[in-house]
Amino acid sequence: MHKKTKTVACPTCSTPVEWHAAARWRPFCSERCRLIDLGKWFEESNRIPADEGLPEHPESPETV
């Protein structure tokens, strides 16, 4: 039985990347692409949008 390897696009440069345990930089094609993406998170070009309805620092259940 032959297993087909899943292929995904590198998030930085769109190069096809085989998705398997031996793919060192997955989902990126290389360390360079991984570091470019990390740099975008550090400079806040990439960020997860906040829900405007939630408080900035929610109280812990112990203090409520």
Tags for this entry?
single chain; 64 residues; alpha+beta; Erythroid Transcription Factor GATA-1, Chain A; 2 strands; elongated
Task: Describe this structure as you would to a colleague.
The chain has one helix at 31-42, and strands spanning 6-9, 16-19. It contains one helix and two strands. 5% of the residues are buried. With 64 residues, it is an alpha+beta fold. A hairpin with a 6-residue loop joins strand 1 (6-9) and strand 2. The mean pLDDT is 83. It has one domain: Erythroid Transcription Factor GATA-1, Chain A, CATH 3.30.50.10. It is elongated, with a radius of gyration of 18 Å. A two-stranded antiparallel ribbon has the order 1-2.
Contiguous uncertain segments of 5+ residues: none
Tell me the quaternary state: single chain
Sheet with the most strands?
2 strands, antiparallel
Mean pLDDT: 83
Radius of gyration using CA atoms only: 18 Å
Which architecture per CATH? 2-Layer Sandwich
Shape: elongated
Strand fraction band?
Answer: 5-15%
The top level CATH class name: Alpha Beta
Order of helices and strands: EEH
The CATH topology comes to Erythroid Transcription Factor GATA-1, Chain A
Q: Counting H and I runs of at least 4 residues, what is the number of helices?
A: 1
Count of all domains: 1
Terminal CA distance: 57 Å
Helical content class: 10-25%
Looking at CATH, the homologous superfamily is Erythroid Transcription Factor GATA-1, subunit A
Question: Could you give the count of β-strands?
Answer: 2
* Biggest sheet, spatial arrangement of strands: 1-2
Structural class by helix and strand composition: alpha+beta
